[in-house]
What we know:
By secondary structure, the protein is mostly helical. It contains twelve helices and no strands.
Amino acid sequence: MYLKRPAGGLAFCLFYLASCFTNKYVLSVLKFTYPTLFQGWQTLVGGLLLHISWKLGWVEINLCSRSEILSWLPASVLFVGIIYAGSRALSRLPIPVFLTVHNAAEVITCGFQKFVQKEQTSHLKVCSVLFLLVAAVCLPLCDAQFDPNGYLWALIHLICVGAYKVFHKLWKPSSLSDLEQQYINYVFSVVLLASASHPAGDLFSALDFPFLYFYRFHSSCCASGLLGFFLMLHTVKLKSSTTSGQYAAWSFLAKVITASLSPFFFVMTANVLTISCLVIGGVGEALLVYTERTGT
């Protein structure tokens, strides 16, 4: 059976959908396009809630080795790149397009395994990665809503995601758990984004934001922080309680649901070629899930 632990998996899908939709609403509908502030807020909320959960004994975090913390900092830099570039891209691109480009990060990890680590890679996995690559490359050529800046930030996001996955494969932690890694990511992100908010011009530009004192903006920002935190917790829980293939299947389902429902809530103009690229990307990820499940 492909989808085991339905309660945890369905909760993960729900938080994935809600988090993605809330972020899209703030970025594209309200047009709060100040990523150092928005992502800084989300990581601050996530970090505070994770710290409180740790102190209350709800989660186990043990950061006793300074050397391990320092060794993880390159990944934290990439994490900041992921959320910053992802925020920029999501504010300009439809959710299905963003997710299709995001999935192409697997090209980097697969290429690293095959050409650098010289690992054996099945023809089916290579085929799935090629599907993902073709979909991501052809989308800008077929997109009726083509936004060059949106695709540029999506490319940067893709590179950071791929590099983060490669670093995680190379880095062999002796004690840092997924929650401890995320805690470091949160703290580093808050410090870096807060420091960059003034040089980037976001700090004072946000004062002119037309919905700054509106309830729907405040409630959406609070929801984005809370949903991001709960999504992270459910991701860690699902990864620890299932195999990599089962987690990949749930992740694929969450993306399909999110991408399929998004056109009903957010404006998206698509032609036959655009839809074809999205389908090709979906087929590529489905094949990738199959290879994870079967170990081929």
